[in-house]
Amino acid sequence: MFASRLLSRLGRAAVPTAALACGATAAAVAVLPAWSEPAVKAQSWDTMFNLPEQKSIAGKTALITGCSAGIGKATACGLASSGCNLVLVARRAEKLEELKAEINRRVPGVSVTVVAGDVNDDALYEKLVALKVPQKVDILFANAGLALGKETVGSADLSDWKGMMDANCLGAFRLIDLCLPEMVKRGGGHVLATGSIAGLESYEGGSVYCASKHALHAFMKALRFETYAKNIKVTVVAPGFVGEGTEFSEVRFKGDKAKAVATYENLKELRASDVAAQVLWAVRQPDHVNVDLLQVMPTDQGSAQRIHRARRS
Ligand SMILES: NC(=O)c1ccc[n+]([C@@H]2O[C@H](COP(=O)([O-])OP(=O)(O)OC[C@H]3O[C@@H](n4cnc5c(N)ncnc54)[C@H](OP(=O)(O)O)[C@@H]3O)[C@@H](O)[C@H]2O)c1
């Protein structure tokens, strides 16, 4: 017993001598290979015995759209506490100013710039260019988006369809198109976009929302192919149900709080901060590691339509 413990501590190189010293017969030792390597050799997995800090992103600049609420807002807070300077984008200027004040109070060292505007509006892009934002962005999180309605095809509201396609697709595409050339010029960067489980599977009542997120996933895959040789990281964030901390379902059901609450009835959905934590993990990976797809689901949700509603709390 003592001998085998000692052997395993000493490692393979020490086996024959140690075994003999512990009383093993010469015949038993003879069947062991004569190892010539040192007992403990440096290996790439050695770090796993002493987990390293994640990559520092202090001093980097992150542009986040859709950060007046939800996933974008939670991610902005996490990036700020990691030392990132921020450019905050959404339509509601007052919500962005509130967030800026909160971040300034809690993380005084980081710079926060508010650029209020609609991701479909030329004026937003003019402001970003005037502030030379594309020249500064290291991390671009195209997160602004929404679902509008749950009508099936044949009874849909065309303005809802247009609103989703504009914000979820063209808004993200245009912003990435604006910032990418400067990232490439500076030799690197990280582009993330919030897709969805709806970008991986379709469901009844979600035709155009699902179509918009499938299109976003396809765009990001093409972007990955176009940029992997340019030191640009590309990540799709694809959550399932995210409730707490977001306005997603209230927006989808146009202010109908009862319908919004019913979405998460008897299940424990994700919080905005759960998704933000995953985004932070992805952006803090070592330089040679790209997280292509972050699919994050509540434990209670197996797929877009497989939902376990048995919690009573
Ligand atoms: N919640 C979920 O279950 C879930 C699941 C999967 C994916 N997602 C995706 O996650 C992203 C964030 O949603 P969320 O859940 O955090 O919902 P949220 O709380 O409603 O946040 C959406 C954000 O997007 C902004 N936004 C919407 N349209 C915009 C536009 N045209 N221009 C600029 N900003 C716009 C909103 O701000 P303003 O109103 O101030 O402009 C808000 O800050 C979306 O892309 C959504 O599709 C959500």
Please describe what this structure looks like.
The protein has 2 domains: 48 residues, no CATH class; 236 residues, 3-Layer(aba) Sandwich (Rossmann fold). Strands 3-2-1-4-5-6-7 form a 7-stranded parallel beta sheet, sandwiched between helices. Helix 4 packs across helix 11 and helix 7 runs parallel beside helix 8. The protein is built from 11 helices and 7 strands. Helices cover 42% and strands 12% of the residues. It starts with a helix and ends in a 17-residue tail after the last strand. The protein is an alpha/beta fold and 313 residues long. NADP nicotinamide-adenine-dinucleotide phosphate (NAP) binds next to helix 4, helix 7 and helix 9.
Write the layout of secondary structure elements.
Elements: H1 2-10, H2 15-21, H3 26-30, E1 61-65, H4 70-81, E2 85-90, H5 93-106, E3 112-116, H6 122-130, E4 139-142, H7 158-186, E5 189-194, H8 207-227, E6 232-239, H9 248-252, H10 257-263, H11 272-283, E7 293-296
Parallel strand pairs: 1-2, 1-4, 2-3, 4-5, 5-6, 6-7
Helix pairs in contact: 4-11, 7-8
This protein binds NADP nicotinamide-adenine-dinucleotide phosphate.
NADP nicotinamide-adenine-dinucleotide phosphate binds at residues 65-72, 90-92, 95, 118-120, 143-146, 167-168, 171, 194, 196, 239, 241-242, 246-248, 251, 272.
In short:
This protein has 313 residues and is an alpha/beta fold. The protein has helices at residues 2-10, 15-21, 26-30, 70-81, 93-106, 122-130, 158-186, 207-227, 248-252, 257-263, 272-283, and strands at residues 61-65, 85-90, 112-116, 139-142, 189-194, 232-239, 293-296. The chain folds into two domains: 2-49, no CATH class; 61-296, Rossmann fold, CATH 3.40.50.
